[in-house]
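Q: I'm building a small set of examples for a reading group on sequence design. Run inverse folding on the following structure and report the sequence directly after it, with nothing in between.
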């Protein structure tokens, strides 16, 4: 058996704990017994493929290519998580506005702390939409329509921003799948 620089295994006659003898490329390994001293390689030895098969190189540890691809994939997963978070926040804001619209339309007690908190929160997010459309003689309807427009606007803008962010994350995951080395057995 010849040991070359491409083979990363220790010579079969090496003793555990002792350094392997220095072998340059193409130089034969010193043998200690008659079987290893023979000129023919024996099938089943490490680094020797059975007759008719090509020797496969074993993958030992992570390659730089795998490490970079894994890093890009991890960032892509994090970016996808960020996109989901953006959409969840937009949905929660829309739900807050919808609850405030319903409570205003059913004439809920404005002195109640829960109702008051929901109206203040909805006014914080949809206050700039107040007065967008005017209905003469129907102030409750005007607020319902204005805040309804705000609700739809938050959902649409949230979905657009989340899709843009998710596109970046999906690109990172595609990069990882394309650039990961295929493991060999």
């Amino acid at each position: 058996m010849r040991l070359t620089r491409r083979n990363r295994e220790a010579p079969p006659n090496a003793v555990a704990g002792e350094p392997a003898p220095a072998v340059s490329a193409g130089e034969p390994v010193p043998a200690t017994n008659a079987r290893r001293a023979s000129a023919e390689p024996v099938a089943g030895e490490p680094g020797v493929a059975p007759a008719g098969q090509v020797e496969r190189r074993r993958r030992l540890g992570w390659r730089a290519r795998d490490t970079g691809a894994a890093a890009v994939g991890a960032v892509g997963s994090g970016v996808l998580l960020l996109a989901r978070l953006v959409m969840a926040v937009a949905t929660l804001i829309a739900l807050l506005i919808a609850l405030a619209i319903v409570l205003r339309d059913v004439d809920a007690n404005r002195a109640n702390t829960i109702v008051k908190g929901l109206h203040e929160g909805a006014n914080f997010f949809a206050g700039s939409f107040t007065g967008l459309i005017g209905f003469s003689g129907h102030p409750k309807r005007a607020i319902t329509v204005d805040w309804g427009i705000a609700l739809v606007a938050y959902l649409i803008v949230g979905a657009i921003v989340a899709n843009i962010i998710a596109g970046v994350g999906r690109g990172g995951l595609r990069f990882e799948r394309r650039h990961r080395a295929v493991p060999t057995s």
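Residues 1-8 have pLDDT under 50 and may be disordered.
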